[in-house]
Amino acid sequence: MASPAPYFVVLVVMVVCALNSIHSVEEGHVGVYWRGGALVKRISHPGWHLKVPFLDQFENVQTTLQTDKVTDIPCGTSGGVMIKIDRVEVVNRLKEDHVYMTIKNYTVYYDKIWIFDKIHHEINQFCSKHTLQEVYIDLFHTVDDRLQAALQESCNMWAPGIEIVAIRITKPRIPDSILKNYEQMEAEKTKLLVAQQTQKVVEKEAETEKMKATIEAEKSAAVSKIKMEQSTMEKESQVRIKKLEDDAYLANEKARADATYYSAAKAAEINKNTST
């Protein structure tokens, strides 16, 4: 009777080959393959796939947004002060139609060259050209945009499939002795701002009071003017009334005198006619 051992070995080999050939590509990734160490022009999409057992190597490569975190970045300012940036987060994406050439040129660790190492280089370049005041205060708000522009420019030239979407950077850590000076300076700035705001409030209140006083004065002046005009008009009316009364009195007296004269003349004429 034949030994079952050879059949068992064949079965085991078939199972191992099947397990080695079947693989899955994760959602948001594509599969890339190497045969004998050489990258082949085969890109697979999410789902189950087959490869040649023991000859092909397979790797998932992410093509959706991912965040690379670069940590503990030391740098020296132009004045010689050593500072450290705890973390820089780089949101990036590898375009699917550029996966083959990017992996061929820079392997699956392409982000080490164009993100991790590049971040260290660009931050050290920035620090070495600026003072601590500029790095820590004056220009810090521009660092993320500067880094994004520098990384994207390099990627466009050497690895066009890499898209730099956004960069977030933490505040640098500076020596404690210098930090205390900055904290004291910020405290003094805060006091100055409070004093300035208080002064503005006082000036505003004084300006408001001045405006109120001006308005009241203008109001009083307007009221006085109206009263004066009213008094003038009353006096002018009284003068006109008095003149009318005087004119009426004179006219009345003249009429009476005319009547008396007319009566006397008439009587004289009658007497004259009688005597003749």
Structure, explained:
- The structure is a single chain.
- By secondary structure, this protein is α+β, with helices and mostly antiparallel strands.
- It has 6 helices and 8 strands; from the N terminus they run αβββββββααααβα.
- The protein has helices at residues 5-21, 99-106, 110-128, 132-138, 143-158, 176-275; strands at residues 22-25, 29-35, 38-44, 47-50, 56-62, 66-76, 82-94, 162-169.
- The strands form 3 sheets. A 3-stranded antiparallel beta sheet has the order 3-2-5, covered by helices on one side. A 3-stranded antiparallel beta sheet has the order 6-7-8, covered by helices on one side. A two-stranded antiparallel sheet has the order 1-4.
- The protein is elongated and about 200 Å long.
- The mean pLDDT is 85.
In short:
This protein is α+β, with helices and mostly antiparallel strands and 276 residues long.
Outline, from the CA principal axes?
Answer: elongated
Structural class: alpha+beta
Helix content: 55-70%
Q: Quick check: average pLDDT?
A: 85
Rg, nearest Å:
53 Å
How many helices in DSSP terms? 6
Number of strands: 8
Strands in their spatial order, largest beta sheet: 3-2-5
Strand count, sense and barrel status of the largest sheet are:
3 strands, antiparallel
Strand content: 15-25%
Which parts are unreliable, with pLDDT below 50 for 5 consecutive residues or more? none
